[in-house]
UniProtKB/TrEMBL annotation:
One GO CC annotation: plasma membrane
Molecular function GO terms recorded: tumor necrosis factor receptor superfamily binding
InterPro entries per record: TNFSF9, Tumour_necrosis_fac-like_dom
Organism: Pogonophryne albipinna
PANTHER family: TUMOR NECROSIS FACTOR LIGAND SUPERFAMILY MEMBER 9
Record keyword Transmembrane present: yes
GO terms (BP aspect): positive regulation of activated T cell proliferation; positive regulation of cytotoxic T cell differentiation
Annotated transmembrane regions: 20-44
Name assigned to this protein: TNF family profile domain-containing protein
Length: 213
C-alpha cells in the first residue's frame, strides 16, 4: 500500500475542506453585512419619510410656496401614537396622539379612539408599521420578556436583563403589512412574575404607521 500517496490525498481533501470553510464563512459574513446594510437603509428611508411628512411650522408661508398640498397629502396617511403610561402589565397598551407641527400625529386616513386606544387605517393597503420601545430600570430590576403586539400584524419583543442601573434598553420593530380597515389594538404582555421597577419611557416609546402603496 502506498502510504505516502494516501496521506497526500488526505491532505488534499483537508485543504479542499479548508477552502470550502473559508469560502462559506466569507459568504456568510457578506450575507450578514448585506442584511445589516438593508436594515440601515430601511431606517434611513423611514427617517427621511418622517422628515418629509413633518409639516411646516408656518402654514402661511408653505401655502405660498405651494408646499401644503403635498405635505398635507402625506400627513393624512401617517399616524404616530405615543405611550401614555409607563406601567408594564398584561393589558392594552395606552397610547395617545400627540401634537405634530401645526396638527396632530394621526392623519385623516386613520381613526384613533381615545377610550379604547384602538387605531384603524381607513384605506385598505400596505402599511409600514413600526413599534419603538424604550425601557429604563428604576431600581433593582428582574429579567424578563416584554412583548407588545399590534393585532396580528406586528409583535415586538424585548428581552430585559436583570439590571440595577438606569441604562435604557430599547428596541425598534417594523413590518410591512396589509391593513384591511379593521380596528387594531396594541396588547402588552409581561411574564407571570411581572416586570417590577421597569418603566416604559413615554417620549421614546410608541407606534407608528404610514401607507406605502
Ligand atoms: C400575562 O399573560 C401571559 C400570557 O397569557 C401569562 O403567561 C402571564 O402569566 C401573565 N402575566 C401576569 C402578570 O399575569
Ligand atoms: C431611551 O430613554 C432614555 C431616557 O429618557 C434616553 O436617554 C434614550 O435616548 C432613549 N433611547 C432611545 C433609543 O430612544
Amino acid at each position: 500500500m502506498d502510504v505516502e500517496s494516501l496521506q497526500k490525498s488526505g491532505r488534499r481533501r483537508g485543504s479542499c475542506l479548508d477552502v470550502f470553510l473559508v469560502v462559506s464563512t466569507m459568504f456568510l459574513l457578506m450575507a450578514v453585512a448585506a442584511l445589516a446594510a438593508g436594515g440601515v437603509m430601511v431606517v434611513m428611508e423611514l427617517r427621511s419619510e418622517l422628515e418629509t411628512t413633518r409639516p411646516s411650522s408656518d402654514p402661511g408661508t408653505s401655502r405660498l410656496t405651494g408646499d401644503t398640498p403635498d405635505s398635507a397629502y402625506k400627513m393624512q396617511n401617517f399616524a404616530y401614537l405615543e405611550a401614555v403610561s409607563s406601567k408594564l402589565q398584561n393589558s392594552t397598551m395606552e397610547l395617545s396622539q400627540i401634537k405634530y407641527g401645526a396638527g396632530l400625529s394621526v392623519g385623516s386616513n386613520f381613526q384613533f379612539e381615545e377610550g379604547t386606544h384602538s387605531l384603524k387605517a381607513k384605506q385598505v393597503g400596505y402599511y409600514f408599521i413600526y413599534i419603538n420601545l424604550n425601557l429604563t430600570c428604576t431600581y433593582q430590576c428582574n429579567a424578563g420578556l416584554l412583548s407588545v403586539r399590534l393585532g396580528d400584524k406586528l409583535t415586538c419583543e424585548v428581552e430585559l436583563p436583570a439590571l440595577a442601573d438606569t441604562t435604557p434598553v430599547s428596541r425598534k420593530c417594523w413590518t410591512v403589512s396589509r391593513l384591511d380597515g379593521h380596528k387594531l389594538f396594541t396588547q402588552m404582555t409581561v411574564p407571570k412574575e411581572g416586570l417590577q421597577n421597569w418603566r416604559l419611557e413615554l417620549k421614546t416609546s410608541g407606534l407608528g404607521m404610514f401607507l406605502v402603496d
